[in-house]
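Hey, resending since the last one bounced:
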Amino acid sequence: MENWKEIKTQQDIDDLLDLYDGFHDGCLAKAAFQSGAHVDDQLRMGFGDAEDYTLLVTFERQWRPKTLELKFIGLRRCHLVGYEFNYFALLFEAYLTFVEGLLPGEPKRLIVWSDAPFEPSLPLERFEEPGESYIIANGLQWKITE
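The structure tokens again:
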């Protein structure tokens, strides 16, 4: 699969979770953030639009298909937990859902990926172990990269 598929509906989410078995026996292998901000040759700062804020996340797992890339477009929040003493990075499952009105601005409907049940009523930043990773964005695309 070379083409990016866009998540637009709950059925799109369900299909992705079915294809990738809910991320079971997987791990977040790498992530790359891009803001769209830059400095040109005249040393003027340029700022990206909302859709320029992207986070490309690569997941791998012990089953086929093995490698999945998620491209979060219009990245709003990202909290990735790194090394934790006495815990390991295995995903038993992940959650992918639409949430309405979570953050100010447009669009009102955002998409959330989380490695734990996502509860919008809780503070977004909690310092507990094991920590929870989550990503909130305006949109999401995905592809299998075997």
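The mean pLDDT is 90.

Sorry for the duplicate.
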